[in-house]
Each structure stands twice: as structure tokens, then as C-alpha cells.
Amino acid sequence: MLESATAHGESETVFLLFPPALVPVIDIFRVLGNFEEYYDVAALDALEERLAKSMNSQLAKGIVSDALLLAFGLRRERREPVAYGRPEARRGTADEGRLIDLLAACGRRDFDQAERVAASLSVAHSKPLVALAYDVARRLEAAGLTLDMPVPCRAVSANTPASNEVQIERTRGRSDLRLVSDG
Question: Which of 73, 84, 118, 139 could form a disulfide with 63 if both were Cys (CB 3.0 to 4.6 A apart)?
């Protein structure tokens, strides 16, 4: 679970670099985040069509429906909106990393961990969100998308040259950052 993104005692912006296989999963929520802002039903239809390319269309509709409930629940239970990255990009936000961790914990049926992850998302009430995340995780599993935990990803600093990456070592209850350099 990603808890902080501070290196060398200074605060800096850190983005996650998701493995390519995770991008379609987080894109579900990115598109839904845009839907919440503009209420564009065509965006939901396009998301369902995109998902239906790799799974049964009814399953795709179910995933979008359950994810929409989770996205609305997150919006309602947080003071600040969830920070989403750009659709189809591997580069993501800490909130997106926590959301993926929440789904992974629910998929493993580790509800204690899921509640800790939900709490790290700064929600007022974690139990309803864990239940909603479990519904999404079950649908993803039915589609053959199982999320392992900890979710493998890298963190890339906005202030670090592209040749350097910050690797997140994620274990139960803490995250350690270390700089990995090419040169």
C-alpha cells in the first residue's frame, strides 16, 4: 500500500508507472472520473465497448456498472476528489495506486488490508467502499483479470530525469522508496 511519496526529506510529486497489463483496469476509473465531471453517456458506452473486446459484453457492462458505483462512493466519502491520470497512460497517481491496491486486497479476500487501503484513500467510511470494491474485484476475476498484491509498479518523480526511476518496495503497511538510476 502506498502511504507516502517523500524522498530525501523533501516533498515532491511522484507518479506511479503501472505495468501495461494494469492500464486497462485503472482506465475504467479514469474514464468514470471523466464521466462524473461531464456526465457523458457516450464515454460509458465507449468504455463498455473497449472492455467487450477482451471479454463478454455482459461482463463488461457489469464491470462498468460496479466500478461506477465505487467511483461515486469514493467521490462521496472523500473531501478531495480522486486524482486520476490520463486514460491509456502507464503513468498514474498515488490515488490510482491505492485504488488498485484496494481492488487487489478485495480480490484476495483480505478485507482487513482492504479497509486499511480504503482508509489510506482518506475516506470517511471504509466498509461500504470495501464492499463496492469487492463487487468490482469479483467481476474482474470473472473476466480473468486477477490483481496480485502488492501490485507491481514503479514510481517516477516529476522532478527526476527520465533516466532515473524511484522503485517502491511495497509490503504490508508500509512503502519504501529508493532511487534506481541507469547511469
Answer: 139
* pLDDT on residue 136: 95
Q: Binning pLDDT at 50, 70 and 90, where does residue 137 land?
A: very high
Q: Say if CB 137 and CB 103 are below 8 A apart.
A: yes
Distance CA 51, CA 13 (A): 31
d(CA 121, CA 26): 15
Residues in contact with 109: Cβ distance below 8 Å, sequence separation at least 6, in sequence order: none
CA dist., res. 172 & res. 50, Å (int): 34
Entry pTM: 0.75
- Which H helix or E strand runs over 101? helix 94-107
- Helix (H) or strand (E) holding 110, with range, is none
**Average pLDDT, integer, range 117-139:** 93
15, 158 Cβ separation under 8 angstroms: yes
76-88 per-position pLDDT tens digit: 888 888 888 888 8
Question: C-alpha cell of 96?
Answer: 490510482
Rounded Cα distance between 115 and 102, Å, is 8
Q: How many CB atoms lie within 10 A of CB 86?
A: 10
Give the span between the Cα atoms of 161 and 179, in whole angstroms. Answer: 11
